[in-house]
Specification:
single chain, alpha/beta, Metallo-beta-lactamase, Chain A, seven-stranded mixed beta sheet, 17 strands, 31% helix, RibonucZ/Hydroxyglut_hydro, ComA-like_MBL, Metallo-B-lactamas
Length: 288
């Protein structure tokens, strides 16, 4: 009986050995990536509850991950955990709208936890410890670092376009008015990410019209959105980021009134937490 058992174990081992070898594929191999994450026809946009800051995640139908801003350093652990829950291993592009701490503070933790292929920012700087840590971590960990300008195509497929529409150059003393503004279109659905753009920047921006979802500038500060801007963009949904207990007491109530009187649906991460918008390019569903 013992001899038969040993023979059976040897036979089973022979059958198992090729299976083990066949599944050993080097990390980054295209075959294993397609197996693990098959393509689908939906794009996802996640707005992450970053307390006093902003961070948005785009997942394309091809499963490329693009991160817009990183929130503050005080919420970076939450952002890292959220990305891990989404099974993110690599970030195709990290877009930084402006050098304020509420937008770049989480970058060191991001680049230490994920492979970031490239960072694109507006090329503006602040003399702060947060900015110095941001720049140092990007130089050490990121493959490519470049300045983004209006007209730059960041990612494109047959049905999806992600591009910078502002600034053409850095011209304002307030670096927030030089924010990198991003337009995302997937078939019939569009998102506009305005960074921390203020009134001077808004006047200089060639405003796109009929946007479906607007990420409101400056966490809902009234200086980041004008009535004329809202009339031109004419969004169906406005997403306001930043925590409910933020020290700036945002969003501004005048802005909330401007949105409501235009019939724009409002979602706030400070009230609902993380948001996940999914679209097939024709309609949008979202989970709170």
């Amino acid at each position: 009986m013992k001899v038969k058992s040993n023979i059976l174990l040897v036979i089973l081992g022979l059958f198992m050995l090729p299976l083990t070898i066949d599944l050993h594929v080097e990390a980054g191999n295209d075959l294993i990536e397609r197996y693990q994450k098959p393509k689908n026809n939906k794009m996802e946009v996640h707005f992450v509850d970053s307390i006093n800051g902003e961070a948005s995640i785009i997942i394309t139908p091809e499963n490329k991950v693009i991160l817009i801003d990183s929130g503050s350093k005080y919420s970076s652990d939450k952002l890292v955990e959220y990305l891990k829950q989404l099974d993110v291993l690599e970030i195709h592009t990290l877009l930084i709208s402006n050098p304020y701490s509420s937008y770049i503070g989480g970058v060191p933790d991001i680049v230490n936890n994920f492979h970031v292929k490239r960072v694109i920012d507006p090329g503006t700087a602040l003399q702060t410890d947060t900015f110095k840590k941001y720049l140092s971590s990007v130089r050490k960990k990121v493959d490519t670092h470049k300045v983004g300008r209006a007209g730059d195509c960041i990612y494109e497929t047959d049905n999806l376009t992600l591009k910078a529409i502002y600034p053409s150059r850095a011209k304002f003393n307030d670096v927030r008015d030089n924010s990198l503004v991003i337009l995302l279109k997937y078939k019939d659905i569009s998102f506009l990410f305005t960074g921390a753009l203020g009134k001077e920047g808004l006047l200089d921006l060639e405003v796109p019209t009929n946007i479906n979802i607007l990420k409101v500038s400056r966490m809902g500060d009234k200086k980041g959105t004008s009535d004329n801007f809202l009339d031109l963009v004419s969004p169906q949904i406005a997403v306001i980021m930043g925590g409910s207990d933020n020290p700036l007491n945002l969003p501004d109530q005048d802005l909330m009134h401007s949105l409501r009187k235009r019939g724009i649906h409002i979602e706030r991460t400070g009230q609902t937490g993380n948001m996940n918008f999914k679209t097939d390019g024709k309609k949008v569903d979202w989970n709170l």
